[in-house]
């Protein structure tokens, strides 16, 4: 699905849903949300969102497949409840007022990213925990405002670099 004009996803006040049951699919159009989007790629499938996302409500990854986000999400909230959200830079998650929440899912990066630093989205890990995977030469910088919440955060590969105070289970790490 491609085009320059925004595609408005309006599901009457509840999040719209895009389900991928087979293969890899691309939405190469800006998306305008009225109540969020549940991206639900099945295990072994992929959904690529290549243009910006605006509007209200969260972008949520809700199934076992992969959502590849290369367009900036301006809704302010990205939740990974299962499956994988793959990004090429932290800027696609939004700016300083944005939050990425891991609560049972995986955030996969294709290079070094910063979460929780000046001008960067905040990180919150819910009770179901979360995983961040990155290439072996990459660095994940968790700046001030990064919050591990009540769940366990697992970081695979590369380097983890604290860039400021990080709160884990109510305790601050500096």
What is the tally of helical segments? Answer: 0
| Assembly context of the chains | single chain
Percentage of residues in DSSP E strands:
over 45%
Order of helices and strands: EEEEEEEEEEEEEEEEEEEEEE
First-to-last CA distance: 45 Å
Uncertain ranges? none
Provide a short characterization of the protein structure:
By secondary structure, the chain is mainly β.
What's the helix and strand layout?
Elements: E1 7-9, E2 16-20, E3 24-27, E4 31-33, E5 37-41, E6 46-49, E7 53-55, E8 59-61, E9 66-69, E10 77-80, E11 84-87, E12 99-102, E13 106-109, E14 113-115, E15 122-125, E16 130-133, E17 139-143, E18 147-149, E19 153-156, E20 159-163, E21 166-168, E22 171-173
Parallel strand pairs: 1-4, 2-5, 3-6, 4-7, 5-8, 6-9, 8-10, 9-11, 10-12, 11-13, 12-15, 13-16, 14-17, 16-19, 17-20, 18-21
Antiparallel strand pairs: 21-22
Molecular structure report:
The chain is mainly β and 174 residues long. It has strands at residues 7-9, 16-20, 24-27, 31-33, 37-41, 46-49, 53-55, 59-61, 66-69, 77-80, 84-87, 99-102, 106-109, 113-115, 122-125, 130-133, 139-143, 147-149, 153-156, 159-163, 166-168, 171-173. The strands form five sheets. The protein has a seven-stranded parallel beta sheet with strand order 3-6-9-11-13-16-19, with no helix packed on it. Strands 2-5-8-10-12-15 form a six-stranded parallel beta sheet, with no helix packed on it. The chain has a three-stranded parallel beta sheet with strand order 1-4-7, with no helix packed on it.
What are the key terms here?
174 residues; mainly beta; six-stranded parallel beta sheet; globular
